[in-house]
Design a protein that fits this description.
By secondary structure, this protein is an alpha/beta fold. It has 5 helices and 8 strands, in the order βαβαββββαβαβα.
C-alpha cells in the first residue's frame, strides 16, 4: 500500500440573518459568498467546504431548522464513501456588534437568557437550553484545538482573541446544541464571533474565514 493522502475533513459553515439592532449581519453575507470565494482561492488538499447555511436568528422556534442542517451532514457522510472516514466540523459564525476583534469561543453554557426577543419573539430568562442536561451552569467545551487555531490566525496577522463567554443569546443557544450534537455523532463544532463590517471590512473578514478553515483543518 502507498502512503496515505491528506486526512479528509469537511467543514460546514453557518451564519445568521439580521436581528434587533443589527440590520445587516456580516455572517449572512460571509455564509452566502463563501463557496464562490473559496472556488477562486482554493483550499488545501484534503479540506472540503461543505454546506453554507444562513440560520434564523432565533432559539426554540428555529431549533428544528438547526437540527435539519446538522442532520444533513450525517446523511452526506453516510452516503459518500470517500468521506466516510473523514472528520466533520461545524463552524458557526455570529456577530458581536460591540467587538473590534474576532473571538474564538471555547465553550457554550446551558443557559438561555435573552436580553431582547429573538426574531421569532422568544425571550427566555435563565432557562436551561436542554432541560435534561440539568443546571444552567453546565458548560460544553469544543474539542477543536482552539489554542493552536488562535496561534495560526494570530501569526497571519489577524486581530483575534479566545473567549469563554459566547453570551446567553442565540449564538450560545446554537453552539450548545451543536456541541451536544457533535458529541453524539463524533463530529467537532466551533463558534467564532466576528465584528461588524464597519469595524473590520468585508474582504478582511472573508480572508479571515478562509484562514480559519485552513487552521481548523491543520489542527484536527
Amino acid at each position: 500500500m502507498g502512503s496515505e493522502g491528506p486526512k479528509a475533513i469537511t467543514i460546514h459553515v453557518t451564519g445568521f440573518k439580521r436581528f434587533l439592532g443589527v440590520s445587516e449581519n456580516p455572517t449572512e453575507k460571509i455564509a452566502n459568498n463563501l463557496k464562490s470565494y473559496v472556488e477562486k482561492r482554493g483550499l488545501p488538499s484534503g479540506l472540503s467546504l461543505g454546506s453554507c447555511t444562513v440560520l434564523e436568528t432565533a432559539g426554540e422556534g428555529a431549533k428544528s431548522q438547526l437540527y435539519q442542517v446538522l442532520e444533513s451532514s450525517v446523511v452526506a457522510v453516510s452516503g459518500d464513501n470517500k468521506n466516510a472516514n473523514g472528520t466533520v466540523v461545524w463552524l458557526h459564525l455570529g456577530v458581536n456588534s460591540g467587538a473590534e476583534k474576532f473571538a474564538i469561543e471555547r465553550q457554550a453554557v446551558n443557559e438561555a437568557h435573552f436580553r431582547c426577543p429573538d426574531q421569532l419573539g422568544w425571550q427566555p430568562q435563565r432557562l436551561p437550553i436542554v432541560f435534561e442536561d440539568g443546571s444552567i451552569l453546565k458548560a460544553k467545551e469544543t474539542t477543536c484545538s482552539t489554542e493552536s487555531i488562535f496561534n495560526l490566525l494570530k501569526n497571519k496577522g489577524f486581530d483575534v482573541v479566545q473567549s469563554d463567554d459566547a453570551g446567553r443569546f442565540v449564538c450560545n443557544y446554537v453552539y450548545y446544541h451543536s456541541l451536544r450534537f457533535a458529541e453524539q455523532k463524533g463530529h467537532k463544532s466551533l463558534f467564532v464571533h466576528v465584528p461588524l463590517f464597519s469595524k473590520i471590512d468585508e474582504d478582511t473578514q472573508m480572508q479571515f474565514v478562509v484562514s480559519l478553515l485552513e487552521a481548523i483543518a491543520a489542527t484536527c
